[in-house]
Amino acid sequence: MDGFDPEQYCRLYCTFDEGCDPEETDRLRENLRVLDGYYERIGSDLAPASSRLLEYGGGPTVWPLISAARHVNSITFVDYLDANLEFVKKWQKNVESAFDCSSVFRYVVNTIEKNPSADEVDRRQERVRSSIRDIISGDLRLDAPADPRVAAPHSYDVVSCHYTVGHACHVTSDYIPFVKKLGNYLKPGKFLLLSDMPTKYDFPWGNDSGDGKDVNVKDKEFIIDAVRRAGFEVLDVQVVTRPTPDEMPAEQVMVLARKQ
User: Fold this and answer.
1) For residue 58, what is the enclosing H or E element?
2) How many CA atoms lie within 13 A of 185 on its CB side?
3) Which one, of 96, 102, 99, lies nearest residue 125 by Cα?
4) Are 140 and 166 spatial neighbours (Cβ–Cβ below 8 Å)?
5) DSSP state of 100
6) Distance between CA atoms of residues 222 and 148, nearest Å
7) Minimal CA–CA distance to 70: which of 49, 91, 97?
8) Regarding beta strands 74-79 and 186-196, do their DSSP bridges make them parallel or antiparallel, or are they unpaired?
9) Displacement of CA 107 from its chain's centroid (Å)
10) For 134-191, how does the pLDDT look when each residue is reduced to its tens digit (9 = 90+)?
């Protein structure tokens, strides 16, 4: 991941402003719609005044938090890259040079939630900023994937993890144990929102050892089976299809599951 540019990534994939990738914005709209529906579905099991969310592998983005902020009180944000953590910290602190995420907030509030209020868009951004209590480093390959002094096991009502598990795996057999690690942060009966892409991750691992990786997330059924075998009841599965797939996988799988 050397040389990864959070700002360039967000300009291409995480905004509806000029310069974005039109195909990716279609995908983003669908991701936002599915997540909003999932939070509506589980909202009655969450207490907005006390529920906790762990956003694991959030990258440089906050779009998964827009709908979540209506249903949770506190958010722990975790990512592997320091550059991503600093990028999100700038946004949370509302630094003048921070990336402008307002177009995505407007889409969720005005279009998905059908609330035309410009003030509500601003309020939602402030709600997400104030709900993020900690922004910390994490790595699914470690025994403790995040600092247990901040992210304690069995203490979250929702774990949200999007397009991270497959990337973190070194071999295919890592997949189920990594999903189990995410589940370890949840209270019994609480919820995992997991997204991933059926694809073969065979690019260089990019760590100090220079090892390659050979991870084959074969299809939608592989992801569903892995979530079940990791100790979850799968409640819903949505497939987001890219309109004109090229280098990226044609399908992206979004799963809502309950810890058993």
Assistant:
1) none
2) 32
3) 102
4) no
5) -
6) 30
7) 49
8) unpaired
9) 18
10) 999 999 999 999 999 999 999 999 999 999 999 899 889 999 999 999 999 999 999 9
Is 90 exceeded by the pLDDT of residue 3? no
Q: Name residue 21's amino acid.
A: D
- Taking the domains of the chain in order of start, what are their residue ranges? 6-259
pTM for this predicted structure: 0.92
DSSP 8-state code for residue 214:
B
Instruction: Identify the residue with better confidence: 214 or 160.
Output: 160
Amino acid identity at 198: P
Across 168-244, where does the E strand assignment appear? 186-196, 199-201, 215-217, 232-241
Options 3.10.20.600, 2.60.120.10, 3.40.50.150, 1.10.357.10; CATH of 6-259: 3.40.50.150
194 SS3 class: strand
pLDDT of residue 30: 94
CA angle, residues 141, 165, 112, in degrees to nearest 5: 140
Q: CB 2: neighbour CB atoms within 10 A?
A: 5
